[in-house]
Write a structure and sequence with these properties.
Blueprint: H1 3-22, E1 26-33, E2 39-46, E3 49-56, E4 59-63, H2 66-72, H3 81-95
Antiparallel strand pairs: 1-2, 2-3, 3-4
């Protein structure tokens, strides 16, 4: 993980990362590529659970267990960062 990538990701979703940290998730890795539409991903870990948040062409996606994601409404890409994180936190808080 390089510091430049981390700075860009924190500038985009810093408050959300802090909220994830409050749920026990720590940043393991992140990558940002300005040449690819400003896409990034950030890997977070809590115990043995890995969560990858992806911004791809301004859409937000989370990788994880398919069945669990489908039940939480996270099976798709989100155009709205607000809607994405609302669904993500509902999923995380529902499993805690």
């Amino acid at each position: 993980m390089d510091d430049d990538s981390l700075r860009v990701v924190e500038a985009e979703i810093g408050p959300e990362l802090k909220r994830l940290a409050a749920h026990g998730f720590a940043i393991e890795d992140c990558r940002y590529d300005e040449r690819c539409f400003g896409d990034f991903y950030v890997d977070l870990c809590r115990g043995d659970r890995l969560l990858r948040i992806i911004r791809d062409r301004s859409q937000y996606i989370v990788e994880g267990d398919r069945e669990s994601k489908e039940k939480a409404g996270l099976w798709r890409a989100f155009d709205s960062k607000h809607e994405f994180f609302a669904a993500l936190f509902a999923w995380i808080e529902g499993e805690s």
